[in-house]
Specification:
3 strands, alpha+beta, Herpes Virus-1, 2 helices, three-stranded antiparallel sheet
């Protein structure tokens, strides 16, 4: 089950469950589309993978399976992937 993390790891922009600009990698690192494209060049700085649009969980299912409230933010800042692994 996807966590549906609440923010961009790069700029800390709010990304609510219904956000259409939330992108995730295979490990569910979460970024806004602007950071994923313009800052990261389409490559996850954590794992080196690509991004896909985060699915939107139907509102009726959010009651049973709520989105995460734990914010994740890259403490060292956000930049293009270097030696991700």
């Amino acid at each position: 089950m996807l966590e549906l993390r609440p923010n961009c790891e790069c700029c800390d922009k709010d990304l609510p469950p219904e956000a259409t600009d939330a992108l995730i990698c295979t490990f569910e690192c979460t970024f806004c589309a602007d950071c994923a494209v313009n800052v990261l060049g389409g490559v996850c700085p954590n794992c080196g993978g690509n991004f896909s649009a985060r699915p939107i969980r139907p509102a009726a299912m959010l009651n049973k399976y709520p989105a995460s409230t734990k914010r994740v933010l890259k403490a060292e800042g956000c930049g293009p992937a270097r030696n991700a692994a």
